[in-house]
Write a structure and sequence with these properties.
Blueprint: H1 6-27, H2 31-54, H3 75-84, H4 106-113, H5 117-128, H6 133-140, H7 144-161, H8 164-170
Helix pairs in contact: 1-2, 6-7
């Protein structure tokens, strides 16, 4: 890997900055702001230099004996592989309504158990997916006003089961 040519990249950045500064001065932008732009470009240049000088690719590297360098040649691999490894857990598909399992307020859990699947889907679209009522109405193929009425009914039914402190917290 060829080294990072800081001088070349600094000259290139300074030429780019000179054009930006000329444009800024023509637009009447303050000198302090132009200085901030220069500092931002310089910070980016230094960040790139740090990245390229501290990051080395295994691609194309060879050891003295001519063998290719790859991760299996890492001397720490044998000693620490077991400590850094974790057993493969069974991966299951995330269920669309999985957010219901995260609710820990008993009153809300009981209330949700009384709801139908369509009501839970509506809540999922509005609360979890953060859609607006119009978007949820399109997905559910309902009129916007029907969604609004349904949400009002859901709020009212939730208000009936929640104690006063929780009502103030959850219902707006």
């Amino acid at each position: 890997m060829a080294g990072y040519n800081y001088g070349y990249h600094r000259d290139k950045m300074e030429k780019e900055f000179a054009q930006i500064a000329a444009t800024c001065r023509a637009e009447g932008i303050a000198g302090d702001t132009i200085g901030i732009i220069h500092r931002i470009l310089l910070n980016e240049l230094n960040s790139n230099r740090k990245f390229y000088t501290h990051t080395q690719s295994y691609d194309g590297m060879k050891f003295q004996d001519g063998s290719d360098a790859d991760m299996s040649n890492n001397p720490f691999l044998e000693d620490y592989l077991e400590q850094f490894s974790t057993p493969q857990v069974e991966i299951s598909e995330w269920h669309y309504m999985a957010w219901l399992d995260d609710i820990d307020t008993p009153e809300i859990v009981e209330w949700i158990r009384t709801l139908g699947e369509k009501d839970i889907l509506l809540l999922t679209l509005l609360v979890v997916d953060d859609l607006i009522q119009t978007e949820a109405a399109k997905i559910l193929e309902k009129h916007d006003s029907a969604i609004s009425r349904k949400m009002k009914q859901l709020r009212e039914s939730l208000a009936k089961v929640l104690p006063e402190p929780l009502r103030k917290r959850y219902i707006r």
